[in-house]
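hey so i finally got around to running both of the ones u sent me last week. sorry it took forever, my laptop kept dying halfway thru and i had to restart like 3 times lol. anyway pasting them below in the order u listed, first the sequence line then the structure token line for each. didnt double check formatting much so if smth looks off just lmk and ill redo it

first one:
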Amino acid sequence: MISQEWLLTAAHCINNDLFNLPLAALWTAVLGDWDREMEELTEERIPVEKIILHERFHNFQHDIALMKLSRPIKFTSKTRVRAVCLPNKRLTHNQTDFCVATGWGRDLEDGLLAGKLLETKVPVHDNAICKKKYGHAVHIRSGHLCAGHLDGSTGTCVGDSGGPLQCAMSDGRWILAGITSFGSGCAKPGFPDVYTRMSYYLPWIKTKMKTYRSDLRKRYG
């Protein structure tokens, strides 16, 4: 969540080889969840009103999408939901103490999706490392962020796509540095993961949110 009514995710979670579902009426956001297998009384379900895919999304390029909730959620202790800060400048591999990737993906490549939210600490790398590993299949550009352990000890896995990469800054703030996009499948040694870099897409995010609000004012006065 980046505000009380806007969510970010990966575009390929909405449009991929198996399905293309950019219709907002088909989506409901479940906020404040931790254990998917039980009702914790902290969840809030809000229908999605609008989905905005990046217009140049293709083959993990511009892998980003916005979701507008049908109503804003209130940030209270009951819901346990907060908005994450967006970065104001490009994050480099020497600017953060550590980053945390979270998701309900598999903990083993052939395992099941997790019931409880998983997290893992990962280091940020120069994009040249991911370019060397994945450049034959996906052209690594400035809009990508390379992060993950090179020894294969931990990382994101199948089912984590669209989840956040949050980084602790030296001043104590946490920022949303990236969105889980793709990787080796499940933390293979020598292969870090690739995220959509938030600082690169900040202008796109702000423009789309502003344009949507402007269109609503014109439509309803």
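and the second one:
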Amino acid sequence: MADYDFDFELLKELTETSGVPGYEDRVRDIVRREFEAHTDEVRTDAMGNVVGTIEGDSDYSVAVAAHMDEIGFMVRHVTDEGFAQLDALGGWDARVLKAQRVQVHTEDGDVTGVIGSPPPHTLSEEQKEKKDEVKDVYVDLGLDGETARETVSVGDLVTMEQTTVEMGDHVTGKALDDRVCLFAMLEAAKRIEDPDVTVHFAATVQEEVGLRGAEALGVDLDPDLAIALDVTVANDVPGFEAGDHVTKLGDGTGIKLKDGSVITNPKVHRRLRDVADEEDIEYQYEILPAGGTDTAGFQNTHGAKPVGAISVPTRYLHTVTESAHVEDVDATIDLLAAFLATETGEHDYTL
């Protein structure tokens, strides 16, 4: 295992806690706890975004955003036989759902279920060739129909059940998207003391269903500069050409140049690069051909804002085995903290 400096137990707590879009309550409680210990003011808006503010010596403000929600499901029907059918909250590839254990979050507590997978030798050729879709997924609750309908209701939330563990030089589990970046933001907040500018650390909601929390928050905060944190693709695995890797685990934090929703401000990403060089922090450039982040939410809501983004390279996104390199996590925390500590409000980001 590679050396790392961060609090693994807090990362484990964040990733293993459930929180789908619009229902981030359990994660929000952890965030508020951490913000209350390390920021000057904590507030929550009507959508559920949480902001921890560290007051600076000037009116200039920087917003840092990482989203709390993970992809999950909502129960849309419980069959007479006791199986729950699902509606997706966020972008799922139905192929990865087979033979997975889930948690159904009911008003009376969490209920375990499994998404079964029939033995392959019992399937017809037609069944083998059928395309997997979320609408065809059934959760086996281990209950008869009547008991299942009394226990689980339409509208109950469903998340994948998985632990977060160390694996070689990596950490792996569910919901690293985006809890590993939420974690990096919380860790950086601990390091910021007496900044020249006011820093708003924002834990946003509903990113996985359209950047909704960040877009609303961008209006409320009206920052002078916004930096978003999110995971990014690391396709550095067998089956991909080097040009399609996007990022590579172990090569450092990602400085975003573009994704499917935003082209970052060149002066912002160059200053991120310069800070990384000065502090001897490992980094790599990220050019993500598809997919969006909260970066765009701030740019779209309150006029022309300079925006940048820092990314944690992550393999196997939107599965229960998302994996990141511990040294990349450290580098992300280091770069964010160093960037904020050196922000004076006097850097010219206009183009």
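quick thing i noticed on the 2nd:
The chain has two domains: 8-70+174-341, 72-160.
anyway thats it, ttyl
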